[in-house]
Amino acid sequence: MGELPSSLKNCKNLIMLDVSENMLSGAIPSWIGESMQQLIILIMRGNHFSGNIPLHICCLKRTQLLDLSRNKLSEGIPTCLINFTALSKNTINKIETESPVYWYNSTYSELYNFVIDSYYSFHITWMWKGVEHDFTRPELTLQSIDLSCNNLIGEIPKEITYMVGLVSLNLSGNNLSGEIPSKIGNLSLLESLDLSRNKLYGRIPSSLSEMNFLQNLDLSHNSLSGRIPLGRHMDTFDASCFEGNVDLCGEQLNKSCSGDQTVVKPEKAALRGEYHVFFEALYMSLGIGFFTGFWGLLGPLLLWQSWRITYLRFLNRVLDYLLVTVEVILAKRQK
């Protein structure tokens, strides 16, 4: 319990510092970043640390695993985390990482004529995909940040999307707000992403569907809205990954979105059936009218000679009348 002793800042060559699951309190001392710049693993979870995440922690350029979860940290996530250059690389340089861990003392060998060819193996417990796992030599396989279960506020810094070496990112159980960074898909090696139980809003970025290795996703209990992206592995996540976002829609939730094409309702189908009957009756009446008019006029002319003669005389009179009328009009114009 109590605060971390300041005498630890003299341990400048520490590679791993694990003080998890204690009752340590107070602020995270800034000298961790100032004096322990060789740290590869920093685990401080499950304590009572309070205040903000100190900016000096961003001096830990070699750090691959940072776990500050289950404390009482407040304020925002520092944007300077981008200075964790070890997390900004796609691959782990195993030779460079092993060199400070590998235990070989040339002076000891010369004095005692005894060659020691061995190394120290790190053993840690890490929250992995929602379950605690034991890892041996995690510095060769894991690149992870866990800031879950604190009181952090503000937006998720877009600078996190430049940490392309991240394999796991857990920011759940905070009071983070704003939108999920649109370029979250840049984290192409990410296998686990947990942003649940925050106050995030807006749409889920489509770039999430571009993350080929993503196996664990939890965006539940936020205020996200719109359609859940489809494609690749996104179709494999069930409704529990998105529950608690009342304005989300999509196939994963079996909930249609407002812009989707809907099935014709029975009322419209019935209305369409009524129009069909109307047009059928219209076409039938047109056919009957045409048949009646055609044969009613031409039938008698074809069948009875007297009708034909009378009809032709009538047409001649009409033509004569029209010709006389035209001649009179032309004569008047010439005058």
Rg on CA atoms, Å? 41 Å
Please identify the top-level CATH class of the largest domain: Alpha Beta
Arithmetic mean of pLDDT: 79
The CATH superfamily of the largest domain is: Ribonuclease Inhibitor
Specify the biggest β-sheet. 8 strands, parallel
Write down how many β-strands occur, each being a DSSP E stretch of 2 or more residues: 19
Helix share of residues? Answer: 25-40%
C-alpha geometry: rod-shaped
Distance between the termini: 128 Å
Tell me the number of structural domains: 3
Order of helices and strands: EEHEEEEHEHEEEEEEEEEEEEHH
Query: Please, how many helices?
Result: 5
Strand content: 15-25%
Structural class: alpha/beta
**What spatial order of strands do you see in the largest sheet?**
2-4-6-12-14-16-18-19
**CATH topology (fold) name of the largest domain:** Leucine-rich repeat, LRR (right-handed beta-alpha superhelix)
- In CATH terms, what is the architecture of the largest domain? Alpha-Beta Horseshoe
User: Which residues sit in consecutive blocks of at least 5 with pLDDT less than 50?
Assistant: 104-108, 262-272
Secondary structure: elements and pairs:
Blueprint: E1 16-18, E2 25-27, H1 31-35, E3 41-43, E4 48-51, E5 65-67, E6 72-75, H2 94-98, E7 102-103, H3 106-112, E8 118-119, E9 123-128, E10 131-136, E11 144-146, E12 151-154, E13 168-170, E14 175-178, E15 192-194, E16 199-202, E17 216-218, E18 223-227, E19 247-249, H4 266-303, H5 305-334
Parallel strand pairs: 1-3, 2-4, 3-5, 4-6, 5-11, 6-12, 11-13, 12-14, 13-15, 14-16, 15-17, 16-18, 18-19
Antiparallel strand pairs: 7-8, 9-10
Helix pairs in contact: 4-5
